Amino acid sequence: MAAQSVQISSLLEKMTSVDKDFRFMATNDLMGELEKEALKLDDEIEKKITRTLLKLLDDKNGEVQNLAVRCLAPLMHKAKHGNVDFIIQTLCQNLHGTSERDRDVSSIALKTAVSELSTQLSSVQIKDILGIIFPKLMDILRGNGQHDSAFKIEITDILGILITKFSHTTFINFEEVVDVLFYQLSKDRQSLRKRAITVLGQVSEVVEDDVYCDIVNRLYEGIESGSNSVVRAHVLAASTVSRSGRGLKGRLHEFINVLVNYCRETDDDELKDACVHAFEVFIFRCSKEISPFLNEIQSICSEFIKYDPNYQYDDENGDDSMEVDQNDSEEEEDDLDDYSDDDDFSWKVRRSAAKCFEALINYRTDRLGDHYNQIAPLLLSRFKEREENVKIDIFKAYEALLKQTRLYLPEKLAQFDNSSNISPFTTIESKNVIYTKEFARKVLDEETDNKQKTVLNAYNEQVSKCVKAICKQLRSKSPNVRLNCYSLLIHLVRAFPGCLENHFDVLIPLIQSSVNESSADNATKIDTLQFLNLSFCSHESQVFVPYFDSLVEIVTKCVNESFYKVSAAGLIVLQSLIIVLQRTGGGSKYLEGIYNVILSKLVVGDIDQEVKERSIAAGGVILAAFGNELSPKLPELLPLLVDKINNEITRPTTVQAFCVIVNSAVIVDLSLILENLLLQLSDFLRKNQRALKIASLSLLSSLVTKYPLGQLPPEGITKVINELPPLISESDLFISQLSLRLAKDLTEKFPVEMSGSLGNIVDACVTLANNSILVGNLLQWAVELFTNIVCENIPGKPQFLALMEVLTVQIYSNSKICTRQTYQSVAVIMAHSTKALNNHEYTVKIISGLVNLLEQNQSDGLVLFALTALGELGRIFPESFAVAKINPEELITASFNSESEERKTVASFAFGALASGNLEVYLPALLNEIRNQPTRQYVLLHALKEVIASQNPENHSSVFDSAVDDIWTVLVGHSNSNEESTRSVVAECMGRLCRIFLDLLLPRLIECSTSGNAKQRSTAAGAVRFMIVDSKTSSNDALRENLGPLLRAIDDDELDVRRTTIMTLNSAAHNKPRWIKELLPTLLPSLYRETEIRKDLIHEVQMGPFKHIVDDGLGLRKSAYECMYTLMEHCLDRINVSEYMSYMEKGLQDNHDIKLLNLLMLTRLAQTCSAQVAQKIDRFADLLAPLLALKAKESSVKQESDKIEELKRACIRTILSLKRIPALDRSARLQHCFETVQLDQKLKGILESLEKDNTLKLLSVHNQDIQMENDY
C-alpha cells in the first residue's frame, strides 16, 4: 500500500511538469495504475489525483487533455462519494466557461464520468449527483443561441445516459425533460434533433402513463402543423416513441391518417421517407392495431417503391435514360449536365418502401398468400433499381418472403437443406432418402394441408420470374449485388427443393462467368459454392448431367484458389459433385482431373488445417464412389491417407474418411495398409478422444463384417480385442454400444482370437446389466454377443450353465433388491441364450432353478428375478415350458396374493410376457382373471397392456384378432374406475388396441368420449394420445378426420377431462403436427383459457396446526403451458406470436414450475421469433427482474433454496438469449437486468458458468459424431 502511494505521488508530481511529454507519460502510467482492481486509495491520494486530473483538463496540449479525460473513467470506480460529487460539480461549472474549447472538453469529460457512474448508488448519492447535473443541463438546452449545436449534442447525450441509469429513481423531473427535448425538435440542426429523438425514446420507456400520453399528444400536434423539417422530426420521434411497446395510446389511427395524407400530398421526399419509416415501425410494434390500415400502407409502398421522378426505366429493352425537359434553356441544359444524385432524395423513399414491405412480410405471416400475389411481382419488377443500397433492400424484402415460405415446407422436404455447408461425409452412408420429383410429389400430397399448398403453389408460380430477374442482376459489375443474388438463389432453393431444375441452363453459364472473372471477390465465390452444394443436395442428379463440364471446371478452379476459405468451400462442393457423378454413372470422364486436384492438396503439408481436413474427406469420398476405377491409384493415395492418420490433428478426419470408404457399396482393396491401419486403430481406442474412439470402433466393425477373413491380420485383430473390455463401461454408453457390436462381430469371425479376452468382455457386459444400463440397442448387442458365445466354437469358453452363472452371480449374491431393469436385462439375455442353444438338458436346469426360487420363497430380489425370467422365457422361448413340464401360469399368478406391491407388479409384467408368447393358451386365462378377480384388476390390466403392446399393427396374430371384442369389453368396463392409475392403464390399452383395429374400434372410442360418465370421457381422451404416438398404420386418415371431435373435449365441464385432452393435444402437436394445424384456430382459445389462475380451484387445507394452500388447477395450467411449448416447437407458423406471448407474461408470474417452463419458452422464442420478442422486451425485462431478486427465507429447507437457485439460473439463461437479439442493446430495462447479474457475485458466477457451458457446447459439437449417434 505504501509503495503504491509513493509511486502514485511520484506520478502526480510529474503530471505537473512543464514538459508536456512528462505530463503525458505520467498520466498514461496513472491510468494503468487506476485500472488495476487491487488498487486501494487512501483519502489524501484520492483527493490529489482528483484535483490533478481536473487541472489537466485545462492543459494546453490536446493529447494530455484527451488522456486526462480517459483517466476519469477508472477514477470514477475508485473514488468515494465526496470526490465523485466534486468531479461532477467542477465539470458542470466548466460547462459555462468562456472558451469554446474548454466547454467542449468539459462536456466530453462529464459524459465520460457520468457513463461510469454505478447504477447501484444509494438514493442519497443519486439525489446529490442529479441535483448538481440536471439544472446545468436544463439551462444549457433551454439556451437559445448561447451555445453551438455540437456542444448541445454532447449535453443531450449526457441527459440520455442519466435517464438510462437512474430512470428508476424519483429525482428526475420528466415533465421538464420532455419540454426541453421537444424544444430541441424545433431546431434546425438535424444532428441535434436526432439526439433529442433518441433521448425522447428513452424517456418514453420509463415515464408514467400521464407523461407518456402527454408525449404522444405533443407529437401529434407537432405532426399536424409546422414546417416540413419540424413535421419530419416529429414523425421520426413518433416512430421512436412507439418502439417502447406501449403503442400510441389509442391514437394510432389518427397518426396513420395524418401520415397517409402527407404521403399523398407532400413533395418533400425526406418527409415521405419518415412517414413510410413510421409505418414500418408501427407494423413492427402495433401489429394488431394497424391491421385496418395495412391495405392503405401497402398501396402507398407499392407507389413509393417505384418513385423515381428523375429517372426513366425502359421496360422493353432494359436501357435507362435520364428524363430531360427539351424546352429548357441552353443554360439549364448545362446545369443538367452537371446533375448529381446528391440533390436527389427519392432513393430514400424507395428504400423505406422496401423496408416497409419487408416488415409486412415478416410480421404479417397470416397474409403470405396475398403477399405472393401483390407484393412479390412488384419486388421482382424493382430488381432493376438503379441505386445499389435500395436494390439490396429490395432483395432483402424478397428474401424475407422466401424465408417465410420455408416455414410451410414439410419436414420430409426440409431435410434436403444443406445450406449449412457441412461436409457430405454422411451423405454416402446415411439412410436419408435421395431427392426425386416423385418423392416430393408424394410428400406434398400426403403431408401438406390446404394452406400449405396454397402458399407453395403461389411460390412455384413465381420461381421462373424470380430466376429471370436474378439472372439479369448476376451480370452486374457490383460484387455486393452479385453476392445478394446468390443469397436469393440459396433461399429460393431452401424454400422448395427441386425448384430450379429447369433453370440451370441459364444459371450455370452465369455462375461460371462470375467465378472466372478476375475481379470476382472471395465472398462471392464462397456463396456461389454454397449455392451449388445446396443444389446438388436438393435436385435430382440427372438434372446436372448436361453441365458436368462447366461444373467440374468451376469447382476445381475454386479448390485451387489461394485463399483458404474458398479452397475449403470448394472441397466440400467437390465431394457433393463426386456423389452426383457417381449416381449418374457419368464420372469416368472427369475422374482423372478431380483425382489430381485432391491429390495436389493431400501432398502439401503446410496448407490451412481446414483445407487439409476437407481434402482428406474428399479423398475418402472419391474412393468410396469410384474405388474400382481408381484401383491403379491406390498405392499412391492410400499411403497418403495413412500418413494423415499418424498426424494427431488430422487423425479423426482420416478415420472418418476410411469409414466412408469401407461402408461404401464398392469394396476397395485396402490390403496394402490393413495391418498398419489395425494397429493404429487399436492404439486410438486408448486415446482420451471420444470422437476418435467412436470413429475407430465404427471403422473396425465395418472392416470385420465387410472384409474376408484372410485379409485381416490376426495380430492386429488380437490387439483390438484386448482393448475392448475397458471400453464397455457406464462412463460412455454409446462407446459401450459400439464396443459390444464389435465384440459380437469378432466372435463370429475370429473365435480363436476372442478366447483370450472373452472373460473380461463378459464381465464388463454383466456389470452394465447389473447397473441397470443395458437397455435399447445396448441390450440388443449384448443379447447377440451372448448368443454368439453360446453358439460359436470359441476355445476355452465357459459351459452354458457356467456362463449363465456369471451372468446372474451378482443377483444371487446380492441380498438387496436390484432394479427392475437389471432383472429385465439379465432375463432377456438368459432367455435368448437358452433359445439359441436349444439344449433339452440345460433348458430344464434353467427353468427348474427358477421354479425352485419361487417355491422356496427365497429373498424378494431372487423371487422378482425368477418371475421376470419366467416371463421372458415365455415370451421368447415358450416351448421351453413344455420341455420342462411345468405350468408357469400357476407359478406367476400365485404371486398376485403376495403382500409385496413390487412382487405383484413384476408378476403382472411376467404374466403379460407369458401371454404374449402363447396367446392361444394364456390370453383367455388373462381375460378371465381380469373379470373374476376385482382385487387384482390393476396388475392384471398391466399384464394385458404387455400383450397388446407386443402385437404388430401391421401383422398381428389371428388368435388376438378373435379376442379383440372380449378385450374391448373388459377395457370399457374398467374405463370408469375411481382409481386414476387404473384409468391410465386402461387408456393406454384402449389407445394401442385402437391403433391396431382402427376402423373397428374408433367409432366405439368416439362413443366413449361422449359418455355421460366423466371418468370414461377422460379415459377416452387419454386413449387418443396413445393412438397418435408412433401411429404408422395405413388407415391413419380415419383417425385424422376424427381427431377434431375427439379434441373438443378440451371444453369439457370436468377439469380432469380437460387436462387429459390437453395432454393428448400436446402429444398430437409433437408427433403429428400437421394433423392439428387446421384445428388450432378453434383449439388455441380453449388452451389459452386453461392458463388462467382460477380462484375457485384454490382452497385451504388444515394439516395439524398448519394451514396449507392447495391449487387444484395447477396441474391443468402446467399441462397447458407444456402444450404451448410443444406447439411453439412444431406449429409456430399457425400461432399468433403476439397473443402467445401475452400468456407467457402471465406464466412468468405463476407457480415455480410454470415460471421455469415459460423461461424456457421465452429462451426458445428469442431464437426463432426474435423480431416479435423485441416488441415486448421491456415487459419481459420487468418480469425477469423480480426473479433475480428472489431470496430464500432463513427458515427454508435446502430444497426451497435449490428451487430458487434453479429459477435464477434459468432466468439468467433467458437474459443471455434476449441479449443476442439484434438491436436490443438499446433496451434500458434489459440492460438493467444484465447489470444486476454482473454486480451480484452469486449471479455473476452463474452467468460465467452458463457462458462457459455454452462455449464448451459449441466447441464440442461435431457433425459427424451427431450423425453417427443418430444412425445407431
UniProtKB/TrEMBL annotation:
Record region (Disordered): 315-341
GO biological process: SCF complex assembly
InterPro entries documented for this protein: ARM-like, ARM-type_fold, CAND1/CAND2, TATA-bd_TIP120
Keywords, sorted A to Z: Repeat, Ubl conjugation pathway
Annotated TATA-binding protein interacting (TIP20) domain residues: 1076-1234
Family label: Belongs to the CAND family.
Protein name as catalogued: TATA-binding protein interacting (TIP20) domain-containing protein
